[in-house]
């Protein structure tokens, strides 16, 4: 195996070597771009390439330099950085009453495919160079002592004009020469979060990449639950949020699309009812299916129908119990509990009809053992053009669209090759991350004709050969909901 070492000492383990030799440059169907870097002042990037294994190359990409400094941002009544003009003017008056000069800044969040441009306002105090952050912190303390809610802001995070820097890892998987496969992992259970490193090690994966968003608005013990569709080994483990972006993995193919799920419980007496969710907390009157992968007890305050592998009801019980191996549980509360008590009698059969529908083709996916699905966060590129679907995917705020964050990105090329990317951020002077527009431009530059955004921020993580190759903004790898794995077979 041809192997070059990345700056910083990364070496990919020899155990990843496959028997065939890597393709020559002329044979490769996915290549690192020669066009100008698309971000900032379009600096010339530096790149170091490591040949990971047959058909997989890893690039360490750096570009730009830091010229941004610090300011103090006065928070709006809702606790956010930006707000309406009247609220901003009120904050200016409050700053001036505290004896400080304030600047009122107009911010335009760019239009995306499904949401128009939006204008909001920021109030800021002072401007300090990169080396004078302590002075900004002193000013922030003075303003807090005067009763204002403020924060120290690095200007490179704003999402406005910058010179960088950017620090990214780009993994290119050549469809013609790669001989492994792709899979999804939720770790040891749906409910529990786990690091990408742990999930990759458990499957002896060549590569691991953090997947979609997980639910931070549920009980702490359940926060591994994916927000959106999750299929692992042909088994639906989390329902789709209809219309949101996802990547469908089958063998060594990857397709970006939008999905919906239709799940119906059908009693042997012919009565049918919608199943509202899979492996998540239930709300009032909901019917939720729990599988053995859930890894937590069903909610209390309802009825559980325990089903065997053939859909036979082995018993009804008060809810709040575990899901044992080989079983599934239909949990209902309110009217859903009534349905179970009327149509899921012991020894009856309740069939669970599950459909995962590709909204681009209008066809249901075949839930075969080699099918895996990971929900994305935002569509970025479609059919070779930048198309950011932030509103449809639930991320159309100023913070998500305009501000820069660490990003995890996935793209496919015209011929089906796969591009996996992490752009580190929230590290002033080292790397600033990207906003949605920049992320889309970066993926187009790399040659993606379809691309989506996965979970980012402190979740961004890429593991190659059991080594974490990027620098998470938390300072250490975060436990996440799911991961994309690249397997040797």
Written overview of the protein:
The chain is mainly β. The chain has helices spanning 85-97, 133-145, 196-202, 335-343, 398-401, 436-446, and strands at residues 46-53, 56-63, 70-74, 103-109, 118-128, 150-154, 166-173, 181-185, 207-210, 230-232, 235-238, 245-250, 253-267, 272-274, 277-278, 287-290, 303-307, 313-318, 328-332, 350-358, 363-364, 371-375, 378-382, 385-386, 407-412, 418-424, 450-453, 462-464, 467-468, 483-487. It folds into 3 domains: 14-64 and 165-257 and 361-487, no CATH class; 70-157, Alpha-Beta Plaits, CATH 3.30.70; 269-348, no CATH class. The radius of gyration is 25 Å and the shape is globular.
Please state the CA-atom Rg, rounded to the nearest Å.
25 Å
State the distance separating the first and last CA atoms: 17 Å
- The total strand number stands at 30
Q: How much is the average pLDDT?
A: 93
Can you count the helices? 6
Strand content: 25-35%
| Shape category | globular
Based on the model shown, name its key terms.
single chain; 489 residues; mainly beta; Alpha-Beta Plaits; 3 domains; eight-stranded antiparallel β-sheet; 30 strands; globular; disordered N terminus
Outline:
With 489 residues, this protein is mainly beta.
